[in-house]
Specification:
The N and C termini lie far apart (51 Å). The chain is built from 9 helices and no strands. The protein has 226 residues and is mostly helical. The protein has helices at 7-29, 34-56, 62-65, 67-84, 93-103, 108-132, 137-158, 172-187, 195-215. The model is unreliable at 87-91 (pLDDT under 50). Helix 1 (7-29) runs antiparallel to helix 2 (34-56), helix 6 runs antiparallel to helix 7 and helix 6 packs parallel to helix 8 (172-187). The radius of gyration is 18 Å and the shape is globular. It is found in: Cell membrane.
């Protein structure tokens, strides 16, 4: 679909990194150990893409076929742990982990930004891959939304929270809008080797989500049922 065949993989890997960062912070917030944090980070970063690939028949799914996906998720998790716990040492592992858990709330803003960036990157990469499999623009945008939100659903379920996509927060809406915008731009040739449409859609999706969080925008909630 685009002149640059490396663009879908590049966007996917960037999305994996951002999603793993958000997932690692979620694990820290719940006080999980190192293995638990890694599980949450990997599930949240690879889950959406695996669902997308399975739905469009792109098997084996990229996250299993390409070693770079897991390596990126692992690297992102390591970055978060190093960033939040510079004093971590083998001799004082328990104490260091307790300190790390206590400080994790300070990094909520980073987690929100990483999650918003995940939506933008995966919405575009998912839509692009669906277009490459000859889906119409609207259906491709839906696949982009699944890609963007699927990992977040896995993350929230694993940490025993109601998934954001099922709450009042505008979560899936920015992803769908970004995917649809990208699909329309791509369909009408608004590309520079695929990059221009991608950058615009990613930026607008991420900004939409961040503004929604900042302004506390929510979807309408029906009245309580007696």
């Amino acid at each position: 679909m685009v002149a640059n065949p490396h663009l879908p993989v590049l966007l996917d890997l960037l999305g994996v990194f951002a999603a793993a960062v958000a997932g690692a912070f979620a694990g820290l917030r719940k006080g999980l150990d190192l293995v638990g944090i890694l599980v949450i980070a990997v599930a949240s970063s690879l889950g959406g893409g695996m669902i997308r690939d399975a739905l469009i028949g792109a098997t084996p799914v990229a996250a299993i076929e390409d070693w770079r996906y897991f390596a990126t998720a692992l690297g992102a998790t390591a970055v978060v742990l190093l960033f939040t716990s510079r004093r971590l040492s083998d001799s004082k592992l328990k104490t260091a982990m307790e300190e790390l858990r206590g400080r994790s709330f300070r990094y909520d803003r980073i987690a929100v930004v990483a999650d918003a960036l995940t939506l933008g990157l995966f919405a575009v990469s998912g839509t692009l891959k669906a277009l490459d499999y000859h889906l119409p623009v609207f259906q491709a945008a839906l696949l982009g939304t699944v890609t963007a939100t699927g990992g977040g659903v896995m993350r929230d379920v694993l940490v025993n929270e109601v998934p954001l996509v099922l709450q009042r927060e505008l979560y899936a809406v920015p992803a769908f809008v970004g995917g649809l915008l990208f699909g329309l731009m791509e369909h009408n040739g608004f590309v520079v080797r695929g990059y221009l449409a991608s950058v615009v859609a990613i930026f607008l999706t991420t900004a939409f989500r961040l503004v929604a969080v900042w302004r506390d925008w929510h979807a309408p909630r029906p009245g309580a049922v007696a």
